[in-house]
Amino acid sequence: MIVYNVTVNVDNAVQAEWLVWMKETHIPEVMRTGMFLENRILKLLGDEDSGGHTYAIQYTCKSMNEYNTYQEKFAPSLQQAHTDRYKDKFVAFRTLLELVT
Are 35 and 68 in contact (CB under 8 A)? Predict the structure, then answer.
């Protein structure tokens, strides 16, 4: 299993609206691509001094094949929609993990 992790620090001024948009719009759009099996949102604790709130959004897929397809076909437009909506109000970085049991 592959975990695609997107860590986002969101400005305090838009954090509440951003979280609603992520839950109701963005994450459902990512899941509709059919490339991921599940998702979850985690909030970083003890992040009060960052000037925002930090979240990790994790998407799980079966293999690198699904992840690569997502990156090639879907990620550019979905990431651009996020950037257009929250320009200068967030910082994000992405990591790829493999589930080891």
Answer: no
- Taking 70 as the threshold, does the pLDDT of residue 60 lie above it? yes
Are the C-beta atoms of residues 101 and 1 closer than 8 Å to each other? no
Q: How many domains does the chain have?
A: 1
pLDDT digits (tens, 9 = 90+) for 4-29: 999 999 999 999 999 999 999 999 99
Q: Return the CATH number at 57.
A: 3.30.70.100
Q: Which domain holds residue 79?
A: 2-98
H or E element: which one contains 29? Answer: helix 27-32
One-letter identity of residue 29: E
What is residue 5's three-state secondary structure?
A: strand
Q: Quote the CA–CA distance of 27 and 58 in Å, as a whole number.
A: 10
